[in-house]
Amino acid sequence: MRWHIDGDMFAAYQRGDLTPSRMMAVDTHLQACATCRAAVPQDPGWLDASWSAITEMLDTPRPRPAERLLTLVGVPHHRVRILVATPALRWSWLGATVSVLAFGIAAALAGQSGAHMTLLLYLVFAPILPVLAVATVYGPPVDPMHEITSVTPVAGPALVLWRSSAVVGLSVVIGMLGAAFVPGPGWWAVAWLLPALLLCVSTLALATVLPLIRAAAVFGGAWLVVVGGAAVAGSPVRPLMFGPLAQAGYLAAAVVAGVVLSARRRRLDPGEMR
Amino acid sequence: MTTVSMRGLTKRYGGTTAIADLTARIGVGVTGFLGPNGAGKTTLLRCLATALAPDSGRLVAYGLDTAVAAERTALRRRLGYLPQDPGLYPNFKTAELLDYVAVLKELTDTGRRRAEVRRVLAEVGLTDRATVRVRKLSGGMRQRLALAQALLGDPELLILDEPTVGLDPEQRMLFRALVSRLGHTRTVLLSTHQTEDVGALCERVLVMRAGGIVFDGTPGELAAQAEGRVWVSAEPPSDAHVYWRNADGRYRTLGPRPIGGEPGLLSIEDGYLTLLGAEAAAAGSGDAERVS
Question: Which of 18-77 (B) contact A at CB < 8 A?
Answer without folding.
Answer: 46, 49-55, 66-67, 69, 72-74, 76-77
